[in-house]
Amino acid sequence: MNDSMIIGQYVPGQSLVHRMDPRMKMTIIFFFVIVVFFANSFGSYGLLTLFAFVSVAITRIPLSFILKGLKPVWFLILFTFLLHVFFTRQGDVLFEIFSFPVYEEAIEQGVKISLRFFLLILLTSLLTLTTTPISITDAIESMFHPLKKVKFPVHELALMMSISLRFIPTLMQETEKISKAQASRGVDFRSGPIKERVKAIVPLLVPLFVSAFKRAEDLAMAMEARGYQGGEGRTKLRELTLTKEDIAALVLFVVVMVGVFILRT
Amino acid sequence: MQISFKNVSYIYQPKTPFEYKALQDLSFTIPSGSFVAVIGHTGSGKSTLLQHLNGLLAPTHGEVEIGDYKIQADEKNKQLKSLREQVGVVFQYPEHQLFEETVYKDIAFGPTNFGVEKDEIDDRVERTIDSVGLSSDMLERSPFDLSGGQMRRVAIAGVLAMEPSVLVLDEPTAGLDPRGQREMMDMFYQLHRDQQLTTVLVTHSMEDALAYADYVLVMDQGQLYMEGEPLEVFHQKEALNDVGLDVPEIIEFITKFEQKFDTSMQYTNQPLSQFAEQLKNKLKGGHHDE
Ligand SMILES: Nc1ncnc2c1ncn2[C@@H]1O[C@H](COP(=O)(O)OP(=O)(O)O)[C@@H](O)[C@H]1O
Ligand SMILES: [Mg+2]
């Protein structure tokens, strides 16, 4: 497994954020994403940043772990920043890099846009870090339920999604196991000419496909044996319920959002 | 080749909330040519230990020595390939690693990767398919058309064809029927004998550990809990029970027998028929009140 990649990874915990109704988390994040684009002043950005970091603190997941896990995204953020720094030409010239003028506005724009980007990613990754994939699917199914009226296959899609999510870790483990077995038989996945490395994928992919098909077959058989026949009349083991905590979180969020609009200039 | 672990620790996903200490300060030596069984409860770190033997994992702390090879933390090992040629690893459910169109190609895969000559490969394929107890008629068939047991044998042949001097086996008989299990263990033992291999076997079968090993390592929670010769280890029933392990039935029987009849039996892993004879003499010659 790739240690430095945390997007999509769930970190078990008991915090308030972990316990929240996934629908509430998704709603809050959805509106947060929108409101972030309205922020334009020091105060409004500050408030949003504060909200994001307090949320992180509540989860009790070490910030350093999250930041390290966002490594692949840092590059994008930096790139966005530089793009703005070099291509915005307003305000006074602050200094020059290799005779390339850097404007005051440019720095400000750069910081704002990359901060916006950072906040978006931080908060959305908080969703997957504190919510099991199954809860996310449940939430989606529940929120899209009204679409059933127009014959949209909500249940089937949710089921497909949860099965896929369920098998991602299994497939990753399997990949690791098989690549170790083939490495023991002298396959070198890490070095050598590109052509050789591409060839090295075959002994990995064939067993993976074989086992994935086998698993799919077994699962289909097991579902049939237990009388699965679609979503009609099916009840849930874990009902989603909104609690007082969820309402409190929502109220707090609304207050912050109102604050952002007041602090806008 | 002699294998030695010096204060080896291994941590999975260090410095994350998922950090897990799978091995803690392991030290032991396996002399060249010996047959060592590694036993321990599920999750005790046996498979993690095995993966250090051919450099799939490098210790987080400490050092592993296999023959002349040294594997240390934070050190790029250049001769990994030749180490892997010398140390053949049969993983759990090795049949999952099959991928070629024919049995022949799959067995030849390892030796080909290590640059063995074509003629030599032909020889080895013939020899290994025979030693795993399959007929050479199968060589042109697809491995995916075989039965589970046959697939397992083909996969094992693929490892043996590398002609390793250390053979590492991770629960090689899991999921086979009792007879298949015995045949397979006998096969490994014979190879061990005939080719003077150093064999490391992870097993859940205390019977196998007693029957085949000269030395037993007992793992518990990533630590070396106990080590010694099989008879020595298996006489410590309580200590083994504490870490979720049983003792072989025969040892249990002898212990009970000795208590009941207040006597002592010489058991040194002799064949059962011989031991039965010994028992008979003891019961006949002993002082009982008939
Ligand atoms: N790739 C991995 N990432 C994280 N933890 C792992 C990984 N592989 C094994 N572990 C953990 O290390 C411990 C020892 O595993 P393992 O060596 O497979 O035990 P055994 O073979 O004795 O059953 C287990 O608790 C397992 O969950
Ligand atoms: Mg294991």
UniProtKB/TrEMBL annotation, chain A:
Q: Which UniProt keywords apply?
A: Cell membrane, Membrane, Transmembrane, Transmembrane helix, Transport
The UniProt entry's GO CC annotations, sorted and at most eight, read: plasma membrane
Query: Where is this protein chiefly located?
Result: membrane
Q: Does the keyword Transport apply?
A: yes
Topology term for the membrane: Multi-pass membrane protein
Note one Pfam family from the annotation: CbiQ
One of the entry's Gene Ontology molecular-function terms is: transmembrane transporter activity
- PANTHER family per UniProt: PROTEIN ABCI12, CHLOROPLASTIC
What is the protein's known function? Answer: Transmembrane (T) component of an energy-coupling factor (ECF) ABC-transporter complex. Unlike classic ABC transporters this ECF transporter provides the energy necessary to transport a number of different substrates.
| Assembly, per entry | Forms a stable energy-coupling factor (ECF) transporter complex composed of 2 membrane-embedded substrate-binding proteins (S component), 2 ATP-binding proteins (A component) and 2 transmembrane proteins (T component).
**Protein's UniProt name:** Energy-coupling factor transporter transmembrane protein EcfT
Q: Which organism is it from?
A: Pontibacillus marinus BH030004 = DSM 16465
The gene coding this protein: ecfT
TrEMBL record, chain B:
InterPro entries according to UniProt: AAA+_ATPase, ABC_transporter-like_ATP-bd, ABC_transporter-like_CS, ABC_transpr_CbiO/EcfA_su, ECF_ABC_transporter_ATP-bd, EcfA2, P-loop_NTPase
**Might you give the EC number(s) for this enzyme?**
7.-.-.-
Q: Does the keyword Repeat apply?
A: no
Span of domain ABC transporter: 3-246
Q: Where in the cell is it found?
A: Cell membrane
The topology of this chain with respect to the membrane is:
Peripheral membrane protein
Q: Name one GO molecular function term.
A: ATPase-coupled transmembrane transporter activity
The record's Pfam families line, in alphabetical order, gives: ABC_tran (PF00005)
Location, primary (coarse class): membrane
Question: Subunit structure, per the record?
Answer: Forms a stable energy-coupling factor (ECF) transporter complex composed of 2 membrane-embedded substrate-binding proteins (S component), 2 ATP-binding proteins (A component) and 2 transmembrane proteins (T component).
Family affiliation = Belongs to the ABC transporter superfamily. Energy-coupling factor EcfA family.
Stated role: ATP-binding (A) component of a common energy-coupling factor (ECF) ABC-transporter complex.
- Give the protein name, as stated in the record: Energy-coupling factor transporter ATP-binding protein EcfA2
Source organism of the structure: Pontibacillus marinus BH030004 = DSM 16465
Classification lineage: Bacteria, Bacillati, Bacillota, Bacilli, Bacillales
| Gene designation per UniProt | cbiO
